[in-house]
C-alpha cells in the first residue's frame, strides 16, 4: 500500500498544521521583542507622560511587556505539542488561559517584588507597583483582550496559508495527473498491433505502460531517486520507440549523475515527452534527442535537446510552455529558491536545462512516498 | 455522391491504401482489412507526400488516412486528394484529436478511432464516400488541421503536381484559371484568388485585383515614368504592377513584414 508519508491532518495531532506558530523559533522571539518595544512606546505615548516622566514610563512599560511577551512565548512553546493534540476550540481556550495565567503570575510576582522593595527600603519604589489589584486586574483584562486578538490573528493567517498551499497543490496535481490522451490511445494501438505479431513485445509494452501510469498517478509531490527518474524516462522512450521506430533516436549521457540523489518524480520524463512530441514527431525523417546529465559542484544539471522543425504550430508551443511551467512549480516546491529551468532555442536545436541541488544522497531517511512499482531494470 | 457510393460497393474488391506514419498502426490496419472480404490492400504510405505519390501510381478506391502525420497532415493530404479527377474515398483514423473529431462529426466524414475495432472498420469501409472539395475546406477550417496547406496542388491531366507554398512567387488570376508562378516554373491551378488570399495571409499580399504576391520574394518597389508602382522580385526578371487601389495597404504590409 502506497499511503503518502504524511496524510493531510484532520485538525488533530499534526503539529505542522497547528494554528499557533512555533514560538521557540528565533524569528518569533525577535518579533516578540520588537512588538513589545513598539507597544511599550505606544502605551507610554498614550499616557501622555510629562517630558520628564516619558523615558521612565517607557522603560518601565517596555521591560514589563518584554517579560510578559517572552514568558508567554516560552509557555506556549512548551505547551504547543500538548495544545496541538486538542480540538480547535479547547485548543484556543487553553492557549488563552495559559497566556492570561502567565501574565497574572508575572503581575503578581512584580507586585510582590514591589512589596519587598517597600519593606526593605521603607518607601515605595517608583518603578514597581504598590497597589495590588489596581496593577494585577487591568493586566489580566489586557492579557485576555490582546491574547484573544492574537489567537484570532494566528488562526486566520494559518487558514489563509493553508488555503494557498492547498490551492497550489491542487493546481500542480491537476497539471500532472493529466494523462496525455494521445499518448495513451497511441500506445494502446501499438499494443493492439503487437499482441499478434510480437506477443512478448506487447507484454513488455503493457508492463512499461503500467509502470509509467503508476508514477503518473502518484502524489504530485512524490520524490524518487535520480536513478529511478532516469529509468521512468527510459520506460517512456521504450514505448515511443515501438511507435516511431527508427525515426526516434535518444542519446543518453547520464552516467555522471549521482544515482541516489532525490528529485520530485516526473522531472525528466515530461522533458523527453516534449522533445519527442515537438521535435521528432513533426519530422518525417525523425531525429536525435540528447539527454545529458552532469554534476556541477553540488548542483545537478539535466539537459534535454531536440531538433526544431521548421514550422512550429502554436498549440504545441502552448503545451510545451505548460509542461515547463509545471516542472518549474514542482521544482520550486521541492527546492525553494534553489532550482532553475532554462531554455535555449537556437540554430535548430531546442534545449531545456534543469538545475537543482543534489540532496539526500544515501539511504535518505524520511523520503516520502516512493512509487512502489518502479524497479530499475538491468 | 450517390454515384460514387455505387461504384465503391461493386462486384470487384475495393483497392485500399493505408497511410500512417507509425509502423504498428499500419500493420494492424492491414491485418484487419485483410479479414474483410470486400477489401484488398494495395499499398502503404508513411506520410502525406508519399500517399499522394502512391495514389497517383496505384489509383486506390479507398484511402485510410492518419490525421496526425509529420510534414503534411491527414486533412491536408485529403484536400490534395480531393483535387484529383477521380478522388478515392477517404476514411480518417486518429488516436485522439478533439477538434478533428468534432469536425468529422459535423461534416459527416468517415473516421475511425485507434485502436480500430474490426466491426467498425468493416462498417466504415462499406459506407466510405468520396469527399467533395468544399467539404474538405470546411473540415480543414474546423479541425485546425491542414487549414493552411504546406503545398499548392496543380493538376496536369491525371498527375498531381505539388509545389511547396514557400516556393510560390505569386498567383495571377486570368480569364478562367489562376496562374501560379513558382521557382520551378508556372502552373495553372483551379482555385480562386480570394480563397488563396484568405488561406495564405499574411505571407501573400494582394497588390492588384488579379494578383497576390509572396512577401518573402519582394525585392523592391519601383515607380515608372507614368507614376505606376511596380514590384521587383528577388527571383525572375518580371515586375508586377501594384494597382492604385491596393497600393497603400500593400506597401504597408511589405514594410511591416520584415
The geometry of chain A reads as elongated
CATH topology assignment of the largest domain in chain B: Rossmann fold
Helices of chain B, by number, come to: 9
- What would you call the structural class of chain A? alpha+beta
Overall CATH class of the largest domain in chain A: Alpha Beta
* Second CATH tier, the architecture of the largest domain in chain A: 2-Layer Sandwich
CA-to-CA gap between the ends of chain B?
A: 46 Å
Q: Low-confidence stretches of chain A at least 5 residues in length (pLDDT < 50)?
A: 1-13, 363-378
> What overall form of chain B do the CA principal axes indicate?
elongated
The major sheet of chain A is characterized as: 5 strands, mixed
Helical/strand content category of chain B: alpha/beta
Strand content of chain A: 5-15%
In helices, the fraction of residues of chain A equals 55-70%
Order of helices and strands of chain A: HHHHHHEHEEHEEHEE
Q: Give the neighbour order of strands across the main sheet of chain B.
A: 2-1-3-4-5
CATH superfamily of the largest domain in chain B: Response regulator
Number of strands of chain A: 7
Amino acid at each position: 500500500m502506497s499511503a503518502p508519508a504524511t496524510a493531510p491532518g484532520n485538525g488533530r495531532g499534526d503539529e505542522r498544521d497547528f494554528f499557533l506558530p512555533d514560538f521557540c523559533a528565533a524569528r518569533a522571539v525577535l518579533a516578540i521583542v520588537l512588538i513589545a518595544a513598539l507597544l511599550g512606546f505606544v502605551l507610554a505615548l498614550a499616557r501622555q507622560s510629562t517630558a520628564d516622566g516619558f523615558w521612565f514610563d517607557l522603560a518601565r512599560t517596555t521591560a514589563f511587556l518584554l517579560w510578559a511577551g517572552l514568558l508567554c512565548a516560552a509557555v506556549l512553546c512548551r505547551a504547543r505539542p500538548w495544545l496541538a493534540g486538542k480540538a480547535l476550540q479547547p485548543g484556543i481556550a487553553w492557549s488563552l488561559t495559559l497566556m492570561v495565567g502567565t501574565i497574572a503570575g508575572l503581575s503578581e510576582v512584580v507586585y510582590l517584588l514591589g512589596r519587598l522593595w517597600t519593606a526593605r527600603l521603607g518607601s515605595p519604589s517608583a518603578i514597581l507597583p504598590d497597589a495590588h489589584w489596581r496593577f494585577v486586574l487591568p493586566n489580566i483584562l489586557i492579557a485576555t483582550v490582546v491574547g484573544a486578538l492574537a489567537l484570532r490573528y494566528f488562526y486566520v493567517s494559518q487558514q489563509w496559508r493553508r488555503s494557498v498551499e492547498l490551492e497550489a497543490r491542487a493546481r500542480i496535481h491537476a497539471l500532472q495527473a493529466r494523462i496525455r490522451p494521445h499518448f495513451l490511445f497511441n500506445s494502446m494501438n501499438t499494443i493492439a498491433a503487437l499482441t499478434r505479431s510480437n506477443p512478448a513485445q506487447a507484454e513488455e509494452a503493457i508492463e512499461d505502460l503500467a509502470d509509467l501510469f503508476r508514477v503518473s498517478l502518484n502524489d504530485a509531490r512524490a520524490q524518487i531517486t535520480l536513478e529511478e527518474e532516469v529509468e521512468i524516462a527510459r520506460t517512456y522512450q521504450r514505448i515511443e520507440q515501438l511507435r516511431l521506430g527508427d525515426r526516434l533516436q535518444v542519446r543518453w549521457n547520464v552516467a555522471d549523475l549521482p544515482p541516489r540523489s532525490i528529485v520530485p518524480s516526473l522531472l525528466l520524463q515530461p522533458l523527453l515527452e516534449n522533445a519527442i512530441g515537438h521535435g521528432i514527431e513533426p519530422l518525417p525523417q525523425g531525429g536525435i534527442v540528447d539527454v545529458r546529465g552532469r554534476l556541477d559542484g553540488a548542483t545537478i544539471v539535466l539537459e534535454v535537446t531536440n531538433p526544431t522543425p521548421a514550422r512550429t504550430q502554436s498549440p504545441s508551443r502552448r503545451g510545451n510552455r505548460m509542461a515547463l511551467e509545471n516542472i518549474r512549480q514542482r521544482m520550486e516546491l521541492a527546492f525553494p529558491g534553489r532550482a532553475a529551468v532554462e531554455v535555449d532555442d537556437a540554430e535548430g536545436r531546442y534545449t531545456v536545462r534543469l538545475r537543482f541541488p543534489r540532496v539526500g544522497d544515501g539511504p535518505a531517511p524520511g523520503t516520502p512516498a516512493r512509487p512502489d512499482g518502479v524497479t530499475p531494470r538491468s | 455522391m450517390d454515384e460514387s457510393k455505387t461504384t465503391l460497393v461493386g462486384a470487384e474488391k475495393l483497392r485500399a491504401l493505408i497511410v500512417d506514419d507509425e509502423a504498428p498502426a499500419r500493420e494492424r490496419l492491414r491485418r484487419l482489412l485483410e479479414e474483410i472480404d470486400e477489401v484488398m490492400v494495395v499499398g502503404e504510405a508513411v506520410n502525406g507526400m508519399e500517399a499522394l505519390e502512391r495514389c497517383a501510381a496505384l489509383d486506390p478506391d479507398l484511402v485510410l488516412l492518419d490525421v496526425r502525420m509529420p510534414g503534411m497532415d491527414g486533412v491536408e493530404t485529403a484536400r490534395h486528394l480531393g483535387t484529383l479527377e477521380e478522388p478515392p474515398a477517404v476514411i480518417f483514423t486518429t488516436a485522439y484529436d478533439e477538434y478533428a473529431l468534432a469536425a468529422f462529426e459535423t461534416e459527416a466524414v468517415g473516421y475511425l478511432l485507434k485502436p480500430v475495432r474490426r466491426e467498425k472498420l468493416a462498417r466504415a469501409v462499406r459506407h466510405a464516400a468520396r469527399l467533395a472539395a468544399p467539404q474538405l475546406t470546411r473540415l480543414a477550417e474546423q479541425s485546425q488541421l491542414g487549414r493552411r496547406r504546406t503545398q499548392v496542388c496543380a493538376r496536369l491531366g491525371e498527375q498531381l503536381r505539388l509545389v511547396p507554398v514557400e516556393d510560390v512567387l505569386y498567383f495571377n488570376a486570368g480569364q478562367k484559371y489562376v496562374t501560379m508562378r513558382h521557382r520551378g516554373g508556372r502552373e495553372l491551378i483551379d482555385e480562386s484568388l480570394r480563397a488563396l488570399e484568405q488561406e495564405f495571409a499574411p505571407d501573400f499580399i494582394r497588390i492588384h485585383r488579379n494578383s497576390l504576391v509572396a512577401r518573402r520574394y519582394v525585392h523592391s518597389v519601383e515607380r515608372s515614368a507614368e507614376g505606376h508602382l511596380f514590384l521587383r522580385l528577388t527571383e525572375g526578371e518580371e515586375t508586377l504592377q501594384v494597382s492604385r487601389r491596393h497600393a497603400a495597404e500593400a506597401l504597408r504590409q511589405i514594410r511591416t513584414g520584415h
